Target: NUDIX hydrolase
Amino acid sequence: MSTPNPDDYAFERKIPDGDNMERHVCADCGWIHYDNPKIVVGSVVTFEEKFLLCRRAINPRKGYWTLPAGYLEQNETTADGAVREAFEEANANIRIRDLLALYSVTHISQVQIMYRAELDRPEFSAGPESLEVRLFEWENIPWEDLAFPTVYWALHQYMQIKDEDYFAPFANASGEMLEKSYQILRR
Amino acid sequence: MSTPNPDDYAFERKIPDGDNMERHVCADCGWIHYDNPKIVVGSVVTFEEKFLLCRRAINPRKGYWTLPAGYLEQNETTADGAVREAFEEANANIRIRDLLALYSVTHISQVQIMYRAELDRPEFSAGPESLEVRLFEWENIPWEDLAFPTVYWALHQYMQIKDEDYFAPFANASGEMLEKSYQILRR
Ligand SMILES: [Zn+2]
Ligand SMILES: [Zn+2]
Model:
């Protein structure tokens, strides 16, 4: 489902009374549309050291592989949202373990909350937003065909703590991991 | 700054094409207003084992004590947002240490991201949204006059890990901590 583009509507940019930032204000009715950062919830899901990935049936990045993840809904906990997304995209019943990473993707104003999760049985199939869903051994992950840099970050950061019961969650990748992840988007 | 109430506008509740949830749709212009969960960023800020708290100058919970925290803005990292909020509310230059907690406050669709942070010098003062700002020893924290349950959670969870360099961040309080925190709202 695509988000409507404010530019398609009769919105003006202005600073409402009592505010200190420009906002979209509807020229017809005065509604103030606060552009709030969006929350994406998802997970690195494993089954017997294999990784559950979904090939996207929708844009952006249709045809590329991603983690089960999507927008948090109203009145939903972040963990429940990650469980729901795995069910919607992969018909998979996952069990959340713990918080793997918290990413700020500032150019698109997204906060991504990524969990570590497990499948108890290798039961899954493509939901409506996926072309296919598969379990990959680490060596066979389609690195050349990942959808987003944060998929690359989450998978690599997972490998750093896969034997840990407790760890401090990761933030945005930096250095070599960041550079390599950006190569994804050139494809 | 208060968020406009959708009920004050010519919005209808309906399910847009291609969606599976009811949304607010503007009856005048067709704009689809997605009610997305909001992100609050804040921190437990300490200076020499004392805790920085702000007394709220605005509703809700005007006059009660809170942590420096507020809504994440567009194009901002969660850590930068927490730094900005401490500066806006307490004129304090804080240094973020690590992620303390991730709360889902589902009845108001908020995700609260709380950091552990430090003040290098005890320099602060009330910003426009605060009546006063003070450093409290743990024993002197105004427990009877805290603004929100999550302030109670964050302070108590902080105490559990104050001597740790690395820890897994906390989620919503449960059990006795949750019950005690709800007593706050009876005042
Ligand atoms: Zn309107
Ligand atoms: Zn309108």
Observations:
- Chain B has three helices and ten strands.
